[in-house]
Amino acid sequence: MNDSAIKKMREFNRYYTVWLDVMNKGYLETGRAWPESRVLFELYLCAGISATDLCRHLNMDKSYVSRILGKFEKQGLLTREPVPGGKGLKKIRLTQAGRREAEQIDQRGNQQLRDKLAPLDDETCGRLCEAMAFIEKTLRCHDKER
């Protein structure tokens, strides 16, 4: 890969993270930073996941995820259930309050994209989705197994 391609990709990444507004403390008006919101949403999507699998899935540092999970547990957003014969392994499940907050993140994320993409016509949105699907497919084909 040449330096020009790397520069273009990095420019796009910087633009896209700003465009998605993930750099602010109150992502999607939740009062949470983006990593916390993402962890909560992944727990919503993957009920009963272990902390180890969550870290692997998100490619996040174990100690950072552990601090987030501890915070969520104190706030009553999740519970941890021991897995029988799992040698300390615990399934993480959102409480009703945790599910409500994750659903709010989901709804606000959808609305954010509706608002940002509203000026685009259907053809342009279709082309944009095709380009995103191409990017994801290309990267997944060469992604290391985590």
Automatic annotation (TrEMBL):
<dbReference type="InterPro" id="IPR000835">
    <property type="entry name" value="HTH_MarR-typ"/>
</dbReference>
<dbReference type="InterPro" id="IPR036390">
    <property type="entry name" value="WH_DNA-bd_sf"/>
</dbReference>
<protein>
    <submittedName>
        <fullName>MarR family transcriptional regulator</fullName>
    </submittedName>
</protein>
<dbReference type="GO" id="GO:0003700">
    <property type="term" value="F:DNA-binding transcription factor activity"/>
</dbReference>
<dbReference type="InterPro" id="IPR011991">
    <property type="entry name" value="ArsR-like_HTH"/>
</dbReference>
<dbReference type="InterPro" id="IPR036388">
    <property type="entry name" value="WH-like_DNA-bd_sf"/>
</dbReference>
<feature type="domain" description="HTH marR-type">
    <location>
        <begin position="1"/>
        <end position="140"/>
    </location>
</feature>
<dbReference type="Pfam" id="PF12802">
    <property type="entry name" value="MarR_2"/>
</dbReference>
